[in-house]
User: Fold this.
Amino acid sequence: MSKFSDFNFAGHKALIRVDFNVPLDEQFNITDDTRMTATIPTIKKVLADGGSVILMSHLGRPKDGPTDKYSLKHLVKPLYALLNSSGDSAESAGNTKVFFADDCVGSQAGLTASMLRPGEVLLLENLRFYKEEEKGDEAFAEKLSKLGDVYVNDAFGTAHRAHASTAVIAKYFAADKRMFGLLMNDEVKSAEKVLHEAEKPFCAIIGGAKVSDKILIIENLLERATDIIIGGGMAYTFLKARGGKIGSSLCEDDRLQTALDILEKAKQKNVSIHLPEDSVIADKFAADANTEVRPSDAIPDGWMGLDIGPKAVGIFNEIIGKSKTILWNGPMGVFEMEKFQAGTKAVAESVAAATANGAFSLVGGGDSVAAVNKFHLADKVSYVSTGGGAMLEYFEGKVLPGIAAIKEKESQE
Ligand code: AMP
Assistant:
């Protein structure tokens, strides 16, 4: 693979796989453009070098071929605005043309791509209008590959999928003509730093609703972390497994043994698992519920734990404060409701404070990212990952096909 930042794109047509899978409202306005803005520096670097850019992405989950709702044409104007906003570099601001091809393969896409001039951008139609994309079809990948002479993967959000445009396509480019974009590179570097070069103490904060979603990540972290904080709905399965009374809190009864196994393994490996000492409990799952604070293992019948309590916040704050590496995935409570957001907010603030003291912190997973954004702390942590599922799989210890395909040695092609 080549290093993107060292590559001179002058005269090249860069085929860039981006993750423009952004949420749209009913009028097709983008409600959160984080994924688009995150990849703009990659596009601008190619253009500034004197190259042209062909962008390919999926949007949503179209089932039966082309559908207006999932057309990438809705993104042309916002993309134009992002590329031409007077931002960082004056020379790339103001005059970048953005073309749209209403297919991602075929003669129109091919012709427009071939006529693209340096400094111009072509956005292709939704890759998932073809079933071949998700199937990882080789012929489809090869067709896509003909559109550019350099392949750049900047779509960390889909790096865990072995799709035609994210993985299979890489083999149609020589090793020096395929590379990670700037976003992908930062994502991989941050994840590698936490997984392979973590300075200790290393604290992982795992929250969210379901234990079953997080078992593999916890098991992998048992090999690496010093402390694992478990909060959110999933904590109650652990608390019940230990013999606690959890009322009607979220619980996966078929995972009680798994929870016990994890607690036992942690002991053997000298990893401290921290469950919330107390909880904010509610008499119903609703924003206007009555609330009280109780020990997490003594929740009365009919009540449920919807946030970590003040004692837990204090203990977690101390652990986070002495950590040198922090990984955070999943909220500590139902932070979408005001009454149950204090725990998640406090943890976000602890992570920010530890980061200010020199810790490296990586936040990932849709809801924890939403939480740091909500509390305006995104720029106070070291890195906020754009890839929920991809990040989770990376920390489960899986090889991500999108990463492996770029790194693959030429001799193995
Ligand atoms: P996940 O997608 O598994 O990371 O879970 C995120 C969701 O878990 C958020 O929507 C939270 O509202 C929810 N959640 C967090 N804590 C609790 C809890 N104690 N009880 C029920 N749901 C929770």
Summary: The pocket of adenosine monophosphate is lined by residues 208-210, 213, 232-233, 250, 305-306, 330-331, 333-334, 336, 365, 367 (CB under 6 Å). The CA atoms of residues 11 and 328 lie 42 Å apart. The radius of gyration is 23 Å.
